[in-house]
Amino acid sequence: MTGPYRKIVEVLNGKTVAPPPIWLMRQAGRYLPEYRETRVKAGSFLDLCYTPDLAVEVTLQPIRRYGFDAAILFSDILVIPDALKRNVRFVQGEGPQMDPIDVSGIGNLEGESVLGHLAPVIETVGRLRQELPEETALLGFCGAPWTVATYMIAGHGTPDQAPARLFAYRHPEAFEKLLSFLAEISAEYLIAQIDAGADAVQIFDSWAGVLGEREFENFAVKPVARMIEIVRSRRPQAKIIAFAKGAGLNLLHYRQKTKADAIGLDWSVPLFFAAELQKDGPVQGNLDPMRVVAGGRSLEEGIDAILDKLGNGPLIFNLGHGITPEADPENVTALVRRVREAGV
Amino acid sequence: MTGPYRKIVEVLNGKTVAPPPIWLMRQAGRYLPEYRETRVKAGSFLDLCYTPDLAVEVTLQPIRRYGFDAAILFSDILVIPDALKRNVRFVQGEGPQMDPIDVSGIGNLEGESVLGHLAPVIETVGRLRQELPEETALLGFCGAPWTVATYMIAGHGTPDQAPARLFAYRHPEAFEKLLSFLAEISAEYLIAQIDAGADAVQIFDSWAGVLGEREFENFAVKPVARMIEIVRSRRPQAKIIAFAKGAGLNLLHYRQKTKADAIGLDWSVPLFFAAELQKDGPVQGNLDPMRVVAGGRSLEEGIDAILDKLGNGPLIFNLGHGITPEADPENVTALVRRVREAGV
């Protein structure tokens, strides 16, 4: 079965596409005036995620403006704890908060109602696939178990996820149970997104960088490998990108061990190392988002360095982290143009 | 000239000492009841740093309690911007704050009065050397230019130093000037500490981990190499530890390029990579501070893994970051005992 030609899917199949396809993490976001306009129509941030009309609209906005090669479902990694009734709320200026979970709370978790709770998100995926241009890939996503667990345990964001690290040392069995549980329900959630029309899914392990060697293996590699195993056992053609932010040298065997099709690279990954990793398989990244804010020469230099080192292999051009609200939309225009004109 | 036998100095000379010497970053700190008792006698945190009677007392407290192989001067990396009249203040529960600097502010920086302002800190170093046991090494320290600059530009701590990264992209010349300026005065400050009796000094680049490949070279490697060059040109015997936290694979040639005697390793550095780095020279680290909070088996496992992988080469046992206020002082006793009994 051959689907329509979508550059990002080609790259995920190991092909080199020149110029490389491009999308940006958090491309539907506050740097866009049209996003801010839609945002005020939703009550809370979660309302925006759970209202298909609005979520479809903000997902499509950057596609209309820039013609990115992929749209990424507008949602948040914390819809999973929200579906688990952890009382998730996004407080303006304070970041996400939820009721912290303890050992007995982990024992009482049950995932039966999760997919029902997330039905509006799945509906959004289906409607997006219908509305997107034929050539635009649609990406679904979820958080990796470790990263989602860090928020569930602390009840909020922290600089280095010390509460989750400590909990894992103190309660290794309960913590492993939490990670396994999250891996299972997250895999189900990804399968639902794929069935609704996602061409590929990305697993965000945004806090992989605070883990030591053994913990990276146990908390970052194993649960993500398990998720991918579940998804592939049921949807053998599924395309999966795994993004372990800040993982540094731990990325060395990450793709092989997790069996992801491609790995995401944050902006701190040295390009010589990125080129090594690319010999093993497709990579995605890794422009410093601050270069998009700065614009001009520093933006051009950053783009050119990536294209120079990674452009001759399977590459999905992206930022090394989400685009920030201060980015000038004109700089994104310049970014897309420069990537698309590369090597032409 | 042969000084008294101090294990840490031996390791900094490239020797393997078994069991390895041990000290802990932030060992004089809030986890100790005697520290908290002394702390209330000082008005502000900076008063504590600038009052030799009190700074000497808190520096000695962990030596009395645990007999660490090194005492580290009680001070803060932000005494440099304080000496530069940036109005530094430590606000309880909010972290450090100062007046953010801009391009014209960088043009107006002048370092003449810095060493005068820091005279009480230098006095503390001298008094410490007199009061410490003969076998205990005394460590001085300062922040690396990049890390100090991140605070000076943002005016406060941030999760990923986006303001400084952006400033560096937008104003490369002014930023380079700031780093050069900080390298020069910090080198002078280290020389004064060495002259007052410090056996070795540590340069803390706590925010090296947020830099891309080229920026790591320009903002982390070059200024630290310059500092070390200045110090060595005037004090050829100076012993220097460079700690680039979160630097990951960028640590590969960091010691060679900076000419540090030893490099510090944070807890996220995989031990197989640490062992590679140790082939080139002494390493320091890298237990996860949360293991000290957790205690018990997870503390023992963390210690044993480090001793197993790094104990047969030049190693200074330490944490991978500062000890935290929640750590039980009894767990530190257990930590020191286990390291000292290793291989016995």
Question: What is the compact description of this entry?
Answer:
2 copies of one chain form a homodimer. By secondary structure, chain A is of the alpha/beta class.
Question: What is the CATH T-level topology of chain A?
Answer: TIM Barrel
Q: How much helicity do the residues of chain A have?
A: 40-55%
Report the mean per-residue pLDDT of chain A as an integer. 97
Oligomer: homodimer
CA-CA gap between termini of chain A: 32 Å
- Return residue spans of chain A where pLDDT drops below 50 for at least 5 consecutive residues: none
Q: How much strand content do the residues of chain A show? A: 5-15%
CATH class of chain A: Alpha Beta
What is the rounded Rg of chain A? 19 Å
Reading the helices and strands of chain A in chain order gives HHHHEHEEHHHEHHHEHEHEHEHHEH
Query: What is the number of beta strands of chain A?
Result: 9
The number of helical elements of chain A comes to 17
Largest beta-sheet details of chain A: 7 strands, parallel
Helical/strand content category of chain A: alpha/beta
Q: Label the overall shape of chain A.
A: globular
Topology of helices and strands:
Two copies of one chain form a homodimer.
Chain A: H1 7-12, H2 33-39, H3 45-50, H4 52-66, E1 70-72, H5 79-83, E2 89-91, E3 95-97, H6 103-107, H7 114-117, H8 119-131, E4 137-143, H9 145-154, H10 162-170, H11 172-196, E5 200-205, H12 213-234, E6 240-244, H13 254-258, E7 262-264, H14 271-280, E8 283-287, H15 289-294, H16 296-310, E9 315-319, H17 329-340
Helix pairs in contact in A: 2-4, 4-8, 9-10, 9-11, 10-11, 11-12, 14-16, 16-17
